[in-house]
TrEMBL record:
This is DNA-binding protein. The chain crosses the membrane at residues 16-35, 47-66, 86-103, 110-128, 134-153, 165-184. It is a multi-pass membrane protein. It comes from Gemmata obscuriglobus. One of its GO terms (cellular component) is membrane. The keyword Zinc applies. Zn(2+) binds at H64, H194, H198. It holds the Pfam family HlyIII. It comes from the Bacteria. Its main location: membrane.
Length: 242
């Protein structure tokens, strides 16, 4: 008697890549937690970021793994959960960056804007009729680029070397989104534009994680001019963590 496979992944490349990245995201979150144990003001932002990573890759990997019939109630439900997690990841990714590298009104305004737009997107996703897929991806991309708006403040805080990591992550996200919108390329049967999107998403998250660990968590703001020397650590570029 021929044996039956115990589990057949509906979308093998997309599901396995994101489930593996979900495992990596758990370890990445633990690393960030360890690095912020002596920095309580930075622990919550990085944990929000880590939780959003785990949620996205777990939701996406599960949705693409389970053998749902396309268009069924279960398929639509898990697709919405997957799309919801994308909004959470975009806002979560920028949370430690905005919380640490910005200050005062800039920090409050951009954090509120990013999370308000993410909440609006999630509300529309669950309350309104289904939007075209290309429009959903375009909204994701637009929300992601909003977090780039305080660019001069980022450069002033950590410098060009650190910002190269942010640009690399943004470029990977953009390449994946463009492939998804244009439905190109088709490399081979079972590996096309959607699989490219998933791999770009995983790679972009790893790059952003390195940016947060190497530059955001250890960042020390410059002392206020009115403060005497020694009150705040001397302003230096954020140290590189090996």
């Amino acid at each position: 008697m021929e044996g039956r496979p115990v589990l057949v992944l509906r979308d093998p490349v997309s599901s396995s890549s994101h489930l593996l990245t979900a495992v990596w995201a758990v370890f990445a979150t633990l690393v960030m937690f360890r690095l912020t144990t002596n920095r309580p003001g930075r622990m919550l932002p990085v944990l929000i970021y880590g939780a959003s990573m785990v949620a996205l890759f777990l939701a996406s990997g599960t949705f693409h793994a389970l053998p749902f019939e396309k268009g069924s109630w279960s398929w639509r439900l898990f697709q919405k959960i997957d799309q919801t997690a994308v909004y959470l990841l975009i806002a979560g990714t920028y949370t430690p960056v905005l919380s640490v590298l910005l200050a005062g009104a800039w920090r409050k305004w951009f954090l509120r804007m990013v999370w308000t737009l993410a909440a609006a997107g999630i509300s529309c996703l669950w309350l309104l009729p289904k939007a075209p897929h290309w429009a959903v991806v375009a909204i994701y991309l637009s929300l992601g680029w909003i977090g780039i708006l305080p660019l001069p403040l980022y450069y002033r805080a950590v410098g060009w070397r650190a910002m190269n990591w942010m640009w690399a992550g943004a470029l990977l996200y953009t390449v994946g989104a463009v492939c998804e919108i244009t439905e190109w390329p088709i490399v081979m049967p079972g590996f096309g534009f959607h699989e490219v999107l998933h791999l770009c998403d995983s790679a972009a998250n790893m790059v952003f994680f390195l940016f947060v660990v190497r530059y955001v968590i250890p960042y020390q703001p410059a002392p206020h001019p009115a403060e005497p020397a020694g009150v705040v650590a001397a302003a230096k570029p954020a140290p590189v963590v090996s």
